[in-house]
Amino acid sequence: MNIILIGPPGVGKGTQAKFLVEAYNIPQISTGDMLRANVREATPLGTEAKKFMNAGQLVPDSVILGMMKSRFSEPDCDAGYILDGFPRTIPQAEGLEDLLNDMGQQIDSVLVLDVNHEEIIKRLSSRRSCKECDTVYNLLFDPTTSEGICDKCEGMLYQRDDDKPETIRQRLDVYTNQTSPLISFYTQKGLVKKINGAGKIDAVKKRMLSAL
Ligand code: AP5
Predict the structure, then answer these.
(1) Contacts of 209 by beta carbon, 8 Å cutoff, 6+ apart
(2) For ligand 1, mutation pick of 119, 138, 152, 177 (most atoms within 8 Å of CB)
(3) For residue 170, what pLDDT is reported?
(4) All domains of the chain, ordered by start, with CATH?
(5) Which of the residues 47, 95, 164, 175 has the least number of beta carbons within 10 Å of its own beta carbon?
(6) For the chain, what percentages of helix, strand and coil (3-state, to nearest 5) are there?
(7) What spacing in Å lies between the alpha carbon of 146 and ligand 1's midpoint?
(8) Which regions in the chain score pLDDT beneath 50?
(9) Which pLDDT score is estimated for 155?
């Protein structure tokens, strides 16, 4: 099963992808997580990507497509994958088609999550992530048992640099202008299932699993 998750920043793509990993036993491939790992390790790719990410802009398509080509070649992708945050532009979607053709694969479903902007700003302003294991929490909706400490590994929680209010607004504009055209692109191919991302995490999970 090859699934694409599309939706504005903070809609819950990463949160819901974890449930799909459990349900289908296939990996989540998050370009955002891959880029953040490169930033943390100060690789040349991470140094290049950081300035775009902190400004709420997209990292250039050529960088992303190169990174994905190498990720698809890893053996855990053989049984399928959940693409979280990729593709993000029409050129990336076309590049993905070329990569899939080369691998003799296709996309089975494109899940489009949506929720209103007010809720997105609330979710992102209160998101916290673990510095050690990257588990994502929310101060309002999904808190840890001990304040500031990861429930899974006891790592310290931090707030992402791009979750500042002005950067969130920029990321929402980028989504509207550059990413949302993908919904028509994949609707024309008959692959889109729209999911209401509002409400509790578990309610969205049920909608998503039943849509598949
Ligand atoms: P990326 O990391 O992909 O960020 P994003 O798409 O903006 O998505 P987020 O991770 O912010 O949100 P999410 O939808 O996963 O929400 P989450 O589940 O965490 O990209 C970051 C940057 O990297 C980009 O801006 C760009 O610069 C670059 N980049 C990445 N991919 C790229 C690409 N392909 N091309 C070019 N550049 C790229 O949930 C958010 C919060 O809400 C959490 O705290 C969660 O606990 C909470 N929550 C989730 N669901 C609910 C719910 N139902 N109710 C209440 N709270 C909820």
Answers:
(1) 19, 20, 23
(2) 138
(3) 94
(4) 2-115+178-211 (3.40.50.300)
(5) 47
(6) 50, 15, 35
(7) 24
(8) none
(9) 97
